[in-house]
Every structure is written in C-alpha cells, then in structure tokens.
Amino acid sequence: MADSYADFEAYLQTTASARLADYLELLRIPSISALSEHAGDIRTAAGFVADRLRAAGIEHVEVAETGGHPVVYGDWLHAPRAPTVLVYGHYDVQPVDPLDLWETPPFEPRVENGRVYARGAADDKGQVHLHLAAAAAWLAVRGAFPVNLRYVVEGEEESGSENLERWLEEHRDRLSADVAVISDTGFFEGNLPAITVGLRGMMYAQIDVVGSRLDLHSGSHGGAVMNPALALAEILAGLHDHDGRVAVEGFYDDVVELTGGDRAELARLPFDEEAYRESLGVPALHGERGYTTVERKSARPTLDVNGIWGGFEGEGAKTIIPAHAHAKVSCRLVPDQDPHRVFELVRDRILELAPVGVRVEVRLINTGHPLVTPIDHPATQAAAACIREVFGKAPLFIREGGSVPVACSFASVLSLPVVLLGFTPPDDQAHAPNESMRLDNYELGLRTVIRYWDALAAIGLAASLD
Ligand code: BES
Ligand code: MN
Ligand code: MN
C-alpha cells in the first residue's frame, strides 16, 4: 500500500521548502476577525486561500460575501461516480494580546525545534494550508482527484461564525455533498493521534449592571446605595453550587447523560491528571463533582466567566462606588442542549439573582450547537485507517471541549455526516502567546489527507456514505 504513494512522496519531498515558505506567507497576514481594523487583512488572507485553490486547479473559486468576513469557496467535480467531500477550515485567527509574552512577534513566523511559531500556525491556518497543499499535490501528481471536492474556508470562526450558517442555508443546493471533513481539531495529550468525535456548543453573553448615573464618592454615599460591582459579584457567585454544578434551573434538563460505555471509553484514554495540572500551572484541578477531569473538560456542560470589569483599576486608591460593572459569561454545551434555551435560562437566573438597587441587563453575544459524530461511520473509520497508516498508530477517539460554531450546521443544514479530521498537537497553545504547529504533524497530516481522498473513493458511491 505504502509504495503506491511513492509518486506523491517524491513530489512532496521536492516541494517541501516551497510549501513551508508558502505556509509562512499565510501566517504573516494578521487576519484577526474580532478586530475591525484588520478587516483588510482578512480580505488579504481570503485572497491568499482563493489564489492557492486556483493555482492548485480547483474551479469556481470565489471570495463570497456573507454579510461579514467573506468565505472562500471552490470546487472540483469531475469524479462522477465518486463521493463528494466538503472540506471546512478557517483562515481567521484570534487576537494576539498579551503581546509582551510572545518570544517573537505573532505575525513574524519563526521555525524552531521542528515547530512553526505564529498566531494561527495551528488554529487554523496550518490545517487549511495542508489541505491546499494536498489539493495541489493530487492535481500535480495524478492530474485528477478520486473524489469530488468542495472547499469552504471561512473568515469569522474565531468570532462566532455569525454569518456562515445563513450562507450555508442560502447555498444549500450548490453545496450538495456526501460528507463534511472539518479540519479544526487536533490530537490528544502527548501528541497521540486522535479523531475528535464530539465538540461542545456555546452560549456567550454579556452582563451589564448599572447603578448611579456617575461614579459616586464612596465616603459620601457608601452605605446608601447598592454597589454594582458587588451586585455583579453576588450574581456570578450564585451561578454555581458547592458541588461545582451550574445553579441555573433547567440547565441540565436536555443534557444527554453519558452512558456507562461512554464513560468507560473516556476512562481508557491515557490521561495523566497530575501532568495536566502541572502543565497548566494551577495549584489544583476543579470542577463538577461526580465526573472525572476528562469528562468535565470535554463531555459535560460548563458555565465560565470570561472577563469581568468595572470601577477603578488604576494605580493607588480611588474611593468610588462605580456607576456600572460588567462581565462576559459563556457556557460550553453538550447534546441536546440548545444554546438559545440555555441563554433564556441563564438570563432569567441572573435577573433573579440581581439584588435590589441596580439595573441588570443580559445580552446574547453568540451561539453554537454541540455536535457528536458517529465513530462507526465508514468515513470516520476510513480516516482512522489513513491516520494509522501515516502516523503508524491507530487514533484514539476523543471528545473535545472546544467549539466550532458551524460544525453542527453541516449536519443540520446540509444533512451531512461530519468527520473532524485535525492534526494539531495538543500543546499548540492555540489562542495563547507563542502558538505553534509541529511541522511533522503538518507534513504527516498532509499525507493523511492525500490518502483520505482515495479511502473515501474506495468506500464508493455517494449513497453508501449515508
Ligand atoms: N479550533 C477551535 C476549536 C477547538 C478548540 C477544537 C480546542 C479543538 C480543541 C476553534 O477555532 C475555536 O477556538 N473555537 C472557539 C469558538 C468561539 C470563538 C465561538 C472556541 O471553542 O472557543
Ligand atoms: Mn479553529
Ligand atoms: Mn480557535
């Protein structure tokens, strides 16, 4: 089997340095979707992806408007008796602050110790780029793909994919496919090959607590009014009970409980709790009582405070009662929780917890549905076989605590089975300073994708993938 890819191997070896240079070029574009001053860079990154798809030989390539940051679309549909694969990734990245913790600037990629360091190196430009490289390789080496392909590479995943679901709905007819391959997840701790079979959903909201018109002198008025910062602290403290459970009535109602089998699977993962604790630098792990750390961080719902501000934060002392205080809160959701229903429950609980003397408002910022994908689906099993061949180790099947807001839409809007095929090392520091991607994961990931198109073709006709 391995020998039948000798032609690819020769091509990949001669093109290795050009491929790396091209990947670094993509990493130099500061395509931060959350910050409006980078809207132009987002366009540049979209143009880069479109250009490389065209150069590879992908057809109907366009930078399509969505109402937000554009989505890059392209297809190649010349394998009439073979399945159609929809490939998804994102070319936008997270903000880079705190900048002073980066060893070298986030958009000046550095190659060191077999890794590429840059914002987006792993999440998700590395994975997008290896798909671009796989497409170029197939058409250069064999002249045709064994499957039909549609590429959907978006530019606002990191800010909640606000517009992509509608775009998918509007273009449902021209996006017909047999399977969606989402490359925005990664391997397990210790860089163990893995296929993700569960992503959590998301409900993200902001709480605004308002008291007086202006900040008040805390000597003149302290004791006479409710303090908004204190009110916010009371509210936030009321959102969990002493068992670490979310204290919002109805929050767990739609949660599909883990079966004994699910729990046994998760317990089998080679997870070193102490090494994990140590790697995070926390004095102790913490979470919902009655569940293991692996369960709590990937398969149970949570509520977190992402940020909290208000009042005086400067040097020294300033004696005020702040006029207002704010917090960003978010929930990670699991099947079958609905993000909009969870928003209503959390909002109602917050309003109930609000003490007299302040006005409290809760606003929904973004949502994403949870997703569990079928381990026994032939497309998942084919991916596992390719990973085993290329990485030399059968993949673990893991559930991931993170979210890809639009992942569920490929199932719900386009009715596609989803395979979450990603290769980033778990110590990639995505979203944090000094994000990196291991180059050997990139290179082996590329070879896995190359084989995967053959493996999906071998599964056969479109109908058999359902
Ligand atoms: N690639 C991640 C999702 C992810 C995280 C997969 C961890 C595997 C492990 C994605 O880019 C991401 O960061 N999603 C956000 C969504 C949010 C911005 C709506 C997340 O999970 O916080
Ligand atoms: Mn991502
Ligand atoms: Mn991300």
3D architecture notes:
The chain is α+β, with helices and mostly antiparallel strands and 466 residues long. It has 14 helices and 18 strands. It has helices at 6-14, 16-27, 39-56, 125-141, 164-170, 218-221, 228-237, 260-268, 273-280, 293-298, 339-353, 378-391, 407-412, 439-459, and strands spanning 59-64, 71-76, 84-90, 110-112, 115-117, 148-154, 179-182, 194-199, 201-210, 216-217, 302-310, 320-321, 324-333, 359-368, 371-372, 396-400, 418-420, 436-438. The chain has a six-stranded mixed β-sheet. Strands 11-13-9-14 form a four-stranded antiparallel β-sheet, covered by helices on one side. The protein has a three-stranded antiparallel β-sheet with strand order 4-5-18. α4 crosses α14 (439-459). The protein is globular and about 80 Å long. The structure holds ligand BES and manganese (II) ion (MN) (2 copies). One manganese (II) ion binds at residues 94, 123, 158, 430-431.
| Global shape | globular
Bound molecules: ligand BES, manganese (II) ion
Read across the widest sheet, the strand sequence of neighbours is: 1-2-6-3-7-17
Mean pLDDT: 96
Our measurement of the CA-to-CA distance between the termini, rounded to an integer number of angstroms, reads 27 Å
Structural class by sheet pairing and helices: alpha+beta
Q: Which range best describes the helical content: under 10%, 10-25%, 25-40%, 40-55%, 55-70% or over 70%?
A: 25-40%
Topology, number of strands: 18
Tell me the radius of gyration: 24 Å
Question: Which regions contain 5 or more consecutive residues with pLDDT less than 50?
Answer: none
